[in-house]
Amino acid sequence: MTQVRGRRALGGFTLVELLVVMVVLAVGAVIAAPQLSQTLRIQRARAATTDLTSSLLLARSEAIKRRDQVRIAPQTPGDWTTGWRVAAATSGNQLDRKDPLGEGIEVARAPATIVYERTGRLSTPGLVRVQVSDVGHGGPRCITIDPSGLPRSSLGSCP
């Protein structure tokens, strides 16, 4: 009987190779974490702007459709960061609701409530501006509602 003098190489990884790969991945994650955190905060501000713009468009279209006033108001009076509620003025039926905006998101220059008349126009004359920003990390975004009731968002502080 013949003996085989060496071992046959088997496919796979050694423990040392596996540890080296894990260390490289860990170092990469540590380097990328601060950038990811900032990106997530900027994205939250962008999402809040989009959500408020969508709610404004919904309120306007519902006011026209129902031929009645529709109100948008923060969940907690005076604090838009707690989320908001869109409701028909006469019946009080809730049409839309948004949850709190998340840590580090700030809403400034917003009125106590935004009311759309049955024509789709705002109940208050002139422009209404709402500024959404990521506190200390990202550029602010401005939502401008013109007298006809149409909201537009733009990057930068509200004038």
Please bin the fraction of helical residues: 25-40%
Show unreliable segments: none
- Secondary structure tally: strands: 8
Strand numbers in spatial order across the main sheet: 3-2-1-5
Number of helices: 1
- Report Rg: 27 Å
β content, as a range?
A: 25-35%
The separation of the N and C termini measures: 93 Å
Structural class category: alpha+beta
Order of SSEs: HEEEEEEEE
Main β-sheet, in a few words? 4 strands, antiparallel
Shape: elongated
Task: Explain what you see.
By secondary structure, this protein is an alpha+beta fold. The strands form 2 sheets. The chain has a 4-stranded antiparallel beta sheet, with helices on one face. A 4-stranded antiparallel beta sheet has the order 4-6-7-8, with helices on one face. The model has no long low-confidence stretch (mean pLDDT 87). It contains 1 helix and 8 strands; from the N terminus they run αββββββββ. Strand 7 (141-145) and strand 8 (151-155) form a beta hairpin. It is elongated and about 85 Å long.
Quick tags:
33% helix; 1 helix; 159 residues; alpha+beta
